Structure formats: C-alpha cells, structure tokens
Amino acid sequence: MPQVADGTGAEHERIARAEDGSAAWRDWGPYVAERAWGTVREDYSAEGDAWEFFPHDHARSRAFRWNEDGMAAFSDVKQTWCLGLSLWNGRDPILKERMFGLTGPQGNHGEDVKEYWWYLDGTPTHSWNTWRYHYPQAEYPYADLIAANAARSRLEPEYELVDTGVFDDDRYWVVTVDYAKDGPHDLLMRITIENAGPEAATLHVLPTLWFRNTWSWGYDVEKPSLRLDGERVVGAGPSGALALRGEGAPEVLFCDNETNTARLFGAAADESPAYPKDGINDHVVGGAATVNPAQTGTKAALHYEVELGPGESRVIRVRLSETAGDPAPLDALGLGDGFDAVVEQRAAEADAFYAALPNAPSDADEARVLRQAFAGLLWSKQYFHFNVNKWLDGDPGSPPPPPGRGDVRNGQWRHFDADDVILMPDPWEYPWFAAWDLAFHCVTMAHIDPAFAKAQLILLLREWYMHPNGQLPAYEWNLSDVNPPTHAWSAIQVFLIDGGTDYGFLARILHKLLINYTWWTNSKDKDEDNLFEGGFMGLDNIAPLNRSTLPPEVGTLEQADSTGWMASYALDLLEIALRLARRNDVYEDVAVKFGEQFLRIAGSANSSGMWDDQDAYFYDVLHLADGREVPLKVRSLVGLVPVVASLAYDEPGVRTLPEFRRVLNQYLVKHPELGSAFHRRAFGDEQVYLLALVSPERLTRILKQVFNSEGLLSDHGIRGVSAYHREHPFTVEVGGVEASVDYEPAESTSPLFGGNSNWRGPVWFPLNALLIAALQHYESHGETGVRIEDPLGSGNALTPGEAADDLSRRLISLFLPGPDGRRPADARYPLLSADPRWKDNIFFYEYFDGDTGQGLGASHQTGWTAMVAHLILTRRR
To answer: Whole-model pTM?
Structure first.
C-alpha cells in the first residue's frame, strides 16, 4: 500500500512540476554545509591531516576550493550563489558566520560541534524552511571549550557550551530564519530576532550573499560580480542575474570571496586581495578599512544593528529574486504586506502537506517529532563537489600538492567526480555522503519526496560514483572502505512506499547492483565458502579488533555481520528480481540465481563455527594462521545481522514463475541440509514461503537475548553490545596483544575510528529499524509459533509483529516527553529539556545512551535517526 499522500495540494503540485521540468522548484534549497573546513576535500597535505590543514581559524579568511559553508544558508543547486546569515553580539572576536566545534584531535570523544541550532520545518521543494539558533550574548568561549575538553579523558563526559554558563539568566538571542519561495527563483528570507535576556542588548545581523569561488584555481572561468544598484545588490553569474534587497536602510558591505594570504601565509600586502574574504568580518568587528568603497565584490552583506529590550523581538525581511531591469523603490519590491502574505501561505501549505501523510499522528508531540525529523532530513541536503583526479593532481592556479597523496587516501578512485546535491548524515559532523547511511535517508525521504529518494539511490550507482570494479564509494575519508550493502533493501522500501508501481526504477537499481554483488563475492569471500569478511562494515568499534586492518599474518576474520549482510543482500536482489519477473520473465533467471545464492550462504552460516548452539548466538570467527579458530563471543549487533536476512512471499507471487519454483525445489531436493532456511506455511487458502537465514526455532532462542533487559534490550531500543558484558567483558589475545570489549553505554573510551562514535552499548537506529523489518517479515509468514517474551521474565508473550511494534514504541519514546515532562534524549540538561524556549526544539542525535537514552555523538544526525519518522508512519496503531 502506498505510504505517500494522494498528491493533491500546493506542495504536491510544486513537486510534480519540478519532476516534469515545467518549474524548477528544487533549484534553490538549503544546500550549504554547516562545515566545509576540516574536510578531506579541502585537505592538500602530504600526510592527510584534514583537521590541521584547514582549521576553523582559517575558514573566515580562506576561500574554499570545493564547496561553501554557512549558517541558515541556501544556495542554487550548483552552488554558484549562496545566501546565509552572519551575526555579531558585540563581544566575540569574530563574526559568527559558521558553527564552531572541536576537531577530531581536540575533542575527548573526537570532533564535536559546540553550538545549539535546530531545523524546525521544511518541504521537499524548499518552498518553506525554518531554522533556529540560540546565540550567547556573552563572548563565545572558544578557548575555554578547547582547553576544557583537552583536559578531559575519554572516560569523562564532554564539556558542552551549556556547561560554560553563557546561557545563565537567559542571556542569549533566539534567531529564527524562515525561507519562503514566491517562485522557483524568488526567495523570501524572514529573520526574527528575540532578546531572551533580562537586559537590553544589541545584535548585529548580516544577511549575506556571495559567490562560491570558482575563478581562483587556474581554469577558464569568468569571475562573477556583485554591486550596489540603488537600494539593492545585483549580481551576474553563470546561472543568471539576481538582486538582493532588505527592508529599511542597512549599511551594504562588499568584499571578495578570496583568501587573505597576508593574514594566513605572510604574503606581502600588495600581493594579497585588498578586500579579502574576511573583509566584512574585520570591518564590523574591528572597524578596519577592509570593505570595498566602490561597493562591488563577490561577497556582500546587509548590515543591521538591532537593539532590543528584554523579551522584545524584531523581524528583518530580505528578498533575493531575479533582476527586473531598472531599480524600483523598496515599497514596490514586495518587502511589506505581500512578503508576509507569501510567508504565511507557505507555512499553511506545509501544514497541509504533512497533515495529508497517510497514518500521520494525531498526538501533538509525535507530530512535532515527525515534522522536525523530516525538516532535519531536508536541511541535510548538501551540495557535494569532489573531483578526485583534480584533487590528487592539484589545480593549475595553485601550487602542486605533495607527491604520493594517493597512497594516503583515495588513490584508486580517480574516476570519482561528484557535483550533486546529496543527503548527508549530519551537516556539521559528517558533511559528506556515506553509502549505507544514504540508504536509510532515502527510506524516510520516500514518504515525502519519493522521486528525490529514488534519484539519490540511482546517483550512487552512476559511472562517476561506482568504481569500475563494482564497489560503491563509502565516504570521502576512505572511498574504498566497506559499508553494509543496504542499497537494495532501501530501493525495495522506497519502491513500496511510493506505491509499488515504478518498475523502471527497480530495473535500473538491479542492473547496477548485479555488478556490486559480484564485487562482494570476488573480494570479500577469501576462501570461497560463502562466509564473508568485510572489515569495518559501518559498525566502527563494535569488535575487540579493528576489523579493517587485521594483518594477514595473523589470520582472517569471518564475520557474522558480513555474512548476514550478504544473505540479506541476496534476498533483497531476489525480491527485486521476483517483482520484475512477474512483468518480464527475463528476470526469472536472476531470481533463480539469488535464491540459490541465499541458500548457499545460509547453509554455510548455519553449519560453520559462527553459530554457537550453547549461547544461541552468532559470533565472528577468527581463523588464525596456525590453524586455530577463535570465536569472538561478544553478544552484539554483529550477531543479530543474520536475523535481518529474511523474505516472505506467497504462492500467487510465484505462480507465473514456473522455472523459479522448479529450480529452487530441485536445488533443495539435492541439498536437503539447506532446508532449514526454507519454510512453507498455510496462510488462509494460500501457501506462504519464508526464506530466512535464521529458522523460527533458532529465532526464538536468539530473541531471548534480544529482549532481555539485562542483555540487549533497553527502554529505548536494542543496544549495540549486551549489558551482560558490563560485568563480563570479552577478551582475546591476538599476535601477543590483548584486546577486549565491555559494555560502554555512552561515549567511546576507545580511539578506534577516531573515537567519535560508539557501538559498544548505545542504541543506534539503523540496525533497530532493520530488526523491526525482519520481525515483520516473520509475522507475514503466518503463524510460525514464534513467541517473544518482551521483556524476558515478564510473562508477556508477543508475536514477532507485536515485538516489532514494541521496539518502534521504545525508539520513538526517545523524543517524546516522559512522565517528568522531559525527552529522554535531552534529559541530562534541564535547560534543553524543560525550558520553554528550548524543550520543543528537538535534536536528532547519532546514538543514545544504552542505559538512559541520553542523546550522544552528532546532534543533527537526521540521516538515519530521522528513521523515527518512518517508524511513526509505518507502525501499527
């Protein structure tokens, strides 16, 4: 059944027109990252130290090579133009042009943003978007945050901005930015400033328009320009001419988006731009003569100085639209009542759009969670530009980079050439795409914009992304790293949410994933026994060993999760092939292949040392060079991945596929030992079939571990590692080195993978969501006899589907006010969880404390944590 609205309403009409090309409503959006400094793309060092090569201190003065960053910023789809917001409280040493955070080496748990902002609303065409920021009135404590976190160990909590006292007595500004479109290229920016403090205060507000620097790198690119034309800033670039105007009579400041080489690199003053990128900053903060008196440049700001009493607020209206000839007086430029009417209309249309979603919640708190989850997902759409060939060799207008950089990172990916808007995991902490994260982003996105979700999945399979050998790129830090193969699963979910009719999309996905599946079998099944390695597999530090760097002289690691992922991948491709074969029997052979492939993997997994019958759990197995086999007996999500490998289908679904039925039955007759992975059940008058790596009998035993509150089950979902290991850590000695895993419910105490995430205890959304889907598969197979005591010892026996509903409820509860009125994810700080100005602004954290539910890691991980919206819309009421 479709999970999208019926397509009526103003926003649905805009989506339809964007898709058919009749109106380019997606041309502008929040495509500007919160952070471009410290990224791999901007790193041209010999050793690959991205944080050190381009630090935060350089960002205000140094032109970015690949993409821009900013606050509350919109850009066109190729980021020629950017429109964002800068602020100054009169005390900071620099303008607040971008969010500040600690680098990986600075944080006691890796990189970590130290600001409070939220994505409150948005629509798929970005006809309506809302952003909010709480800006301290006291001097921002840059040095204190760096020093205090440096003094803390990995065993201590992070020192946050709220800990510094800058929000005491409510001495901060509430800054809200609403964007509304009156046309595809007519952007209304409403900035609302509120003084939350007890005394009058002054805030400098600078809506800023600038060009991404495309002209300084030695290519034949014409430099664009901005200039003052009457009461508006006009500019011309490759994508056309636009005009910016703001109400009132702000001071208009100009500089160039070019590097201040004198400040950063000691260049002579006459060799550095006269009005460089930080010119507006230096002028506003220090009164320097660093803005162009000729009122022209490639970066321009409207400077408002706003003084407000306690509790007072002010609205500033700004409009960016296509130029219309001679300048007109401001009252004719739509900054008054007409402006407000458009803003209110777009807000109302957004309300109607979300109210029309099937199964939309009636509960106000759930509706708020749903709306802000989608908003964060939409604000996470970022322009991502990365040509690896040019990055490795350098630009003709820049000094050549050090030789051998390709040996450090991404040297085998010269074909990679991204120039697209992509859903990012987190706009500050992870401002780059990640392959398996994207799969979850697209499932949630499909509920509101299935066309965009499908385009994203196809994009990663295109020739300029996928490696010629079939591997999908992982993420910019290591394009060759191995992520779980979730692309096919995501494609099926998107197909079904969209109504299950776009078979062309499924066919495009299948053709490319056949190549990717072959890459997996050729590169990650060393012994060709259908037991897979893989390394990292997206689970960072979950194992006692770094699974990506195990020396070959030590041995090989056959991974329960890699093998489970591949079994699941085979079933996903089988499901796609079956759906296509019902319409085109050419695909029946593909279905046969993946039916057999799954059975072989399931047979190997169930008969190998991965399954421990005494513990009733799957474990990784280390095959040492001396011939010994060592199971790594950690009860973690690694051993649950095999449960995900399940597919139910009914008799009518294969009735027209005689070859598939014949060959699969014949294969099972020849290999009766594989029968434990194939099950038939009567469901009404029809037979229902279940292919599952884990049989219903074993599933019952495994789920006793899963739904044990002293094991994997928490109040808010399934933990990464069982709480059993709190008192019983697992230890193994490999190559004379002892490695161990215990239960760590909060931040990581290990430096593995940078130490900024932790899978050894906290709750993560992606595997929980997949487990929920698997339990629903078992339920759809009819009466299996599987009953789950939830929680163990309660006497409360649930069917798999009922257990899936309970897991959904637990995950959703992270964001809902509890009995004390606080959301568990923010309960640590009363200011965030109880203060009226804060408590309804929801953070979507990367992961959650396995004991308390407190949010941890990236605070805007609206990629896969936005799966909460999917759970709200798809759970059974």
So the answer is: 0.95
